[in-house]
Design a protein that fits this description.
Strand content of chain B: under 5%
Order of helices and strands of chain A: EEEHEEHEHHHEHEHEEHH
Structural class of chain A: alpha/beta
Number of strands of chain A: 10
Radius of gyration of chain A: 18 Å
Number of helices of chain A: 9
Shape of chain B: globular
Helix content of chain B: over 70%
Oligomer: heterodimer
Helix content of chain A: 25-40%
Structural class of chain B: mainly alpha
Strand content of chain A: 25-35%
Chain lengths: 248, 245
């Protein structure tokens, strides 16, 4: 893969807690502008991988390069380049939607005037302008999740980690969020973890399947279905998640 | 700039929670009214305002630990802290951001306590300003206790430790309600090994104009504040380095 277009590259990335290996020698690369899905059962190592890549957890061994910067040394540069929308909605409940957005913009270095302008743009993009001055705790689950993602995007990140962005949302709210994520395609590199396979089929360019911390397979949805000779992606996922060797 | 933006958010979170205002201001002031009313109906000097107000000012500050601890623990529990840990905020930005808004709140709380005491009969003079300055190390101590508790406990545990245990320790072991000499023994020894009674004594000395008595008492508070603040910073940095939740 072309070095310049590589947004993320992991080399033997490992995380161990005492004797338990949570992520085991992960080697993968993600191109700029891709929506890259990390799939796996609970405890497969998806969230731990995201935490290591977003400099929240130090790896036990191995390394990862984010836009060319090592997570072992260039943490400050990496944090400025990326943003995270955590698994649970991560908003300040007593702040308004606009205040939440301005807070994140200022934390990433925007002046008050710039933060205000960016917040207005995000409120419009995410269709929450009419509730800009309402406190975030009064929002529905779907609205809170949209605000949470808007807070991750207001810093104009090169890489965005979306950890189960539609978990617990109803069908309509999920479809609305898909629409938002699709609009970001090609402009932002997105690492998406989810349990919803239809979400992966609808949004992702490529998929990596993890099981017990190991990379089991990597490729497009079609490639993975073809490799496993299955008719549905769910069947492909089940077949690959139970395989013992990596399929590339 | 980043720390100030974060501090501004923390101010809003605390001030917009009506329970914080009710506990932080309402409870100590209600006690001030109640005990003053009792004092006006008994012949002995049990709750003299000169002694009671410093005690309640320190007691009121113990709620600051609850505010800061709960805020940090809730941020942690709701993944908000994970978002912030992934941001370019440094450990200094976090500590400053959680501490800065609480200091003016603590001072304001003490000022209001003395103003109310004035309306109840406490004479106001320059010594009250000195007492407010003397209360600052106590405010920092309680903020640090909150930082420490919030870094290592969840919000329910913070409620129990800071909201119940700490406020009770502060109330009973500070000599506010009764002279510790009346109990004596181990109770008095334990109370004097903790900073609360020294915080109250230093403030009482300031109010009474016994300037020479202030620093020997205040050293206890300053040393406790420094130690707890260092421990809180270590605990918070450890949490930042190893975000495992």
């Amino acid at each position: 893969m072309d070095e310049v277009k590589c947004a993320i590259e992991t080399v033997d990335l490992c995380k161990k807690y005492r004797s338990k290996t949570v992520v085991d020698k992960l080697n993968l690369s993600v191109q700029q502008g891709e929506i890259f899905a990390l799939l796996g059962e609970n405890g497969a190592g998806k969230t731990t991988t995201i935490k290591m890549l977003s400099c929240l957890l130090p790896p036990t061994s191995g390394d990862a390069k984010i836009m060319g910067h090592s997570i072992l040394g260039n943490v400050t540069e990496i944090k400025q380049l990326m943003n995270v929308s955590p698994q649970e909605t991560a908003i300040a409940p007593n702040l308004t939607a606009k205040e939440n957005l301005e807070l994140i913009a200022e934390i990433y270095g925007s002046t008050k005037v710039e933060a205000r302008k960016k917040a207005d743009q995000m409120l419009t993009l995410f269709g929450v302008s009419s509730q800009a001055n309402d406190r975030a705790k009064t929002f529905s689950g779907g609205m809170q999740r949209r605000l949470s993602i808007a807070m991750a995007l207001i810093t104009d990140p090169k890489i965005l980690f979306l950890d189960e962005p539609t978990l617990g949302l109803d069908v309509l709210a999920r479809r609305e969020l898909w629409h938002v994520i699709e609009k970001l395609k090609d402009n932002v590199t997105i690492i998406l973890t989810t349990h919803y396979l239809e979400e992966v089929e609808a949004l992702s360019n490529r998929v990596a399947i993890l099981a017990k911390g190991k990379l089991k397979a990597i490729g497009t949805v079609e490639e993975l279905m073809k490799k496993t000779n299955t008719k549905t992606f769910e069947d492909a996922f089940v077949a690959l998640a139970s395989e013992s060797e990596v399929t590339k | 700039m980043k720390a100030l933006a974060f501090a501004s958010r923390n101010s809003k979170e605390i001030l917009r929670d009506p329970l914080n205002l009710a506990f932080g201001l309402g409870f100590p002031l209600a006690l001030l009214f109640l005990l003053s009313a009792i004092q006006s109906n008994i012949p002995v000097s049990l709750f003299d305002l000169k002694n009671l107000t410093p005690g309640l000012a320190v007691f009121g500050l113990s709620f600051i630990s609850l505010f800061s601890g709960t805020l940090i623990a809730k941020d942690k529990g709701a993944s908000f802290l994970m978002r912030l840990f992934a941001s370019p905020l440094s450990a200094f930005d976090f500590i400053a951001g959680y501490t800065l808004p609480l200091l003016p709140m603590a001072i304001a709380q003490s000022v209001i306590t003395f103003i109310v005491a004035f309306f109840l009969g406490l004479s106001i003079n320059i010594n009250i300003l000195l007492a407010l300055v003397v209360l600052i190390p106590s405010a920092i101590l309680f903020i640090a206790i909150g930082l420490l508790a919030g870094s290592i406990l969840n919000d329910k545990q913070v409620g129990g430790i800071c909201g119940a245990l700490l406020t009770n320790l502060c109330a009973w072991l500070s000599g506010t309600w009764f002279d510790l000499n009346l109990v004596g023994g181990t109770f008095k020894t334990v109370a004097e090994a903790l900073p609360f009674v020294h915080a109250v004594n230093a403030t009482k000395a300031a109010v009474a104009g016994n300037y020479a008595s202030i620093m020997p008492e205040l050293y206890w508070v300053i040393i406790y504040a420094l130690v707890v603040f260092v421990l809180a910073t270590i605990a918070f940095k450890s949490k930042m380095r190893n975000e495992e939740n």
